[in-house]
Amino acid sequence: MSDHREQLADDGVTAEDRSKWDRVRHRLRSDLGDAVYNSWFTRLELERIDGGAVHLTVPTKFLKSWVQSHYAPRIKARVASEFSKVERVLIDVRSPMRKTRSREDGADQVESNAPHCAARAVATFAPALEAANEGNARRAARPMTLRHDADAFVGSPLDRRLSFSTFLVGPSNQLAYAAACRVAEARAGDLPMFNPLYAHAAVGLGKTHLLQALAHASNDNRRHTIYLTAERFMSGFVSSLTTHTSLAFKEKLRGIDVLIIDDVQFLQGKSIQQEFCHTLNALIDAGRQVVVAADRPPSELDTLDERVLSRFKGGLCVDIGPLDESLRIKILAARIASAKESQSSFYVPPEVISYVARTIATNGRDLEGAVNRLLAHATLTGAPLTVETAETAIRDLVRTQDPKRVKIDDIQKLVASHYNISRSDILSSRRTANVVRPRQIAMYLSKVLTLRSLPEIGRRFGGRDHTTVLHAVRKIEELAAKDKGLAEVIELLKRILSEQ
């Protein structure tokens, strides 16, 4: 037997090749740094070498796409420096039941121009996300719960255009995007990293896009995923009660891998919230993933059951903030490119794009509306677009800066301080004159300065009925119309609350 014969390891890779691969990994770590390497390369493994190709494997399609899109040239260069006779680097997704696997039909080659995957999260967030997963044990793989029978629970419709590849990333949504991508990467049987994942944002900033992208990616990763709006959840629950199928409704929800609920702030009704709480607890306790989105953080969801809010606060809460100018330019450019597919002559000069991005600082929907108005102007008049014509076209979309979001707690504290009483006096049942009037003023300000309904406001004022709030609002309106001094005090309180 030749002294040069290489002994094969258990996985079919020779000891010499294994040593070379270890050097490749060491060089990659040195090139990219520990943070990036630990986030994306620790699960990249050498499967075999044959036919002038190095076959690498990763555990998920998500990770495969990420490595292809972002690190292909680096990997190929480092492999070539150690494996002199290798011409190709191939990557595949290995079977979840084995450490590695062979494929007769080959694998996808790592190319530097591979398509963008569902994950483009900025690497600076990768270490934090990876660190959050340290110490989490992996559950034993369980059977897939994918259902294809006619009796399977039907979620809200998904728009295929709302994918990770079409989600534009900027500083305001980086963390939310990175967290959603990491949730989408998981496979059936993995212990959720962030559970629940709670995303909140104002209207038009992309939370629904992000949730639907996550739903698409999770389904593509062979996890049984249901995307529901709060309205769809409520109607499904009420329908199950009227048709005496509530048990089946509960079983179907508890049998899925990923539950995604959008606009949870609209969840109403004591029995509906109780059922949602039971579903939330059952899924989280069973190691299933829950993702929730709302227009405000959990601490401001005054109408939801405290047990539900406690669950939300125990997960990862991420904020999608206002769009910065560079991200607004990206969104405009993407919308314009889409419009050019149907109107090839549509052209928007760079100075017009910059003007619109500076002028409309609200949300993505307003930016899309601006592109539609520019398109209409260009196609209907035939005149070239200039900053002056753009100013006319988007005039109705230009808004003043959104007012500060005022909280009922702040209103109560300010009014109590102004009238030299305590906040507990305002919330109490006392009906003395020095308490009743400030209480009515606080109720009035809560109605005009917040988006809360009359029943919500009543609950925040010691559990009062909505008719009491309505009476207070009308009373203060009548008095302010007659009493100039009271009107000035109310305007002063409004200004202080807006500037706090």
TrEMBL record:
Q: What biological processes does GO assign it?
A: DNA replication initiation; regulation of DNA replication
Q: Describe the location of the Chromosomal replication initiator DnaA C-terminal domain by residue ranges.
A: 407-476
Q: Which InterPro entries match?
A: AAA+_ATPase, Chromosome_initiator_DnaA, Chromosome_initiator_DnaA-like, Chromosome_initiator_DnaA_CS, DnaA_C, DnaA_dom, DnaA_N_dom, DnaA_N_sf
Q: Which domain of life is it from?
A: Bacteria
Q: Which Pfam families match?
A: Bac_DnaA, Bac_DnaA_C, DnaA_N
Residues annotated to bind ATP: G204, G206, K207, T208
Region described as Domain I, interacts with DnaA modulators: spans on this chain = 1-114
Q: Where in the cell is it found?
A: Cytoplasm
Q: What cellular-component terms does GO give this entry?
A: cytoplasm; plasma membrane
User: What PROSITE patterns is this protein classified in?
Assistant: DNAA
AAA+ ATPase domain location: 193-324
Q: Where is this region: Domain IV, binds dsDNA?
A: 379-500
Keywords, in A-Z order = ATP-binding, Cytoplasm, DNA replication, DNA-binding, Lipid-binding, Nucleotide-binding
| One Gene Ontology molecular-function label | DNA replication origin binding
Family, according to the entry, reads as follows: Belongs to the DnaA family.
Its biological purpose is as follows: Plays an essential role in the initiation and regulation of chromosomal replication. ATP-DnaA binds to the origin of replication (oriC) to initiate formation of the DNA replication initiation complex once per cell cycle. Binds the DnaA box (a 9 base pair repeat at the origin) and separates the double-stranded (ds)DNA. Forms a right-handed helical filament on oriC DNA; dsDNA binds to the exterior of the filament while single-stranded (ss)DNA is stabiized in the filament's interior.
User: Any domain commentary?
Assistant: Domain I is involved in oligomerization and binding regulators, domain II is flexibile and of varying length in different bacteria, domain III forms the AAA+ region, while domain IV binds dsDNA.
**What HAMAP family does UniProt report for this protein, alphabetically?**
DnaA_bact
PANTHER family associated with the record: CHROMOSOMAL REPLICATION INITIATOR PROTEIN DNAA
Q: Can you name this protein? A: Chromosomal replication initiator protein DnaA
Species this protein is from: Methylocystis rosea
